[in-house]
Amino acid sequence: MKKQKLERRGNMIIFPGALTTQIDKALRAADRHDFMESVRHFETAKELGELEPEAQLIFAYALYEIREFEKALIICDLLLHEGFEQYEELMDLYVTLLVELRRFEEADALISTLIDERVLSPERKEKWLHLRDLSGRLAANAETKPIPEPLAELKREEYEESTFFDKPLVVQYRLLLVAFEGDCQKLEAEWKTIVEHSTVHPVIQTLALLLLISSDSKQTVRVRKFNWDQPWVPAALDEPFENTRFHELVKKIEERLENEPTAYLLIRDTFQHHCYLQFPYVWNGFSDDEVVDGYTLYFEELLQGEAARSDQRVLRMIHKIDQLYALLEIQ
Question: Is the overall model pTM greater than 0.70, yes or no?
């Protein structure tokens, strides 16, 4: 197979389609409201090249959704100075960010300027007048202790075993993402049932386990994934990317690919995906060298554009995980 000519940027090799692939993944994640995942892909894409203005705006929205308001505002500032065409949509987000950051005077001044310039549609004008009033009330009470908003009540029946597993995989995924914004502690029994269900998809299992961690659950839960089967106490678990072995393996992959920085970015992104799906396991039963060798072979597959036939255990599992992730993309 003839290799494609690779583009270089300084000491980095830019593989064909690498930037587009990351942006596509970011957009798909945003579509399914997985904004943390979307931000991660956008950040990788930024390291590989320039984002189009439309993609930058979606990146800013994703940052807003995970409450990274300062970072989102920086992107909005850049788009504003570059003369972004979707002006009203950009200013909508800009003003909202100013309010979230409690920069009420700036928000009020900006809204007044926009209304005076008469550049707004009637719908936007009404919305921003309301937002200006809200900003003014918040500013007047800025010194008082804020009252936290009550957590949303989750509908228990949507998460019960008898109904939850009848839903399409993507619907299960979205329901669990929504649950993080609600009072998830009240549904501890449902999360445990989902984790231990015999037909649960590993990504759904990970999300339900993370909900148990958020609930500070001290109940033992049995997690069966791939060939692993072990009891865990959620309250004692680290988050997926805070695990010591995860960081050690990332470091060793980086060392192996130290002369290929772009390759490392791509493999790091994939490795994070795979560890998220495996959670709470991190390549248990595989040596560090086996894992690094497997991802090196995986990188060579990406370079060649085709999957290799290999008996390497890690590579075989990588292919299996990729197939499981592909199920989430079918909507």
Answer: no
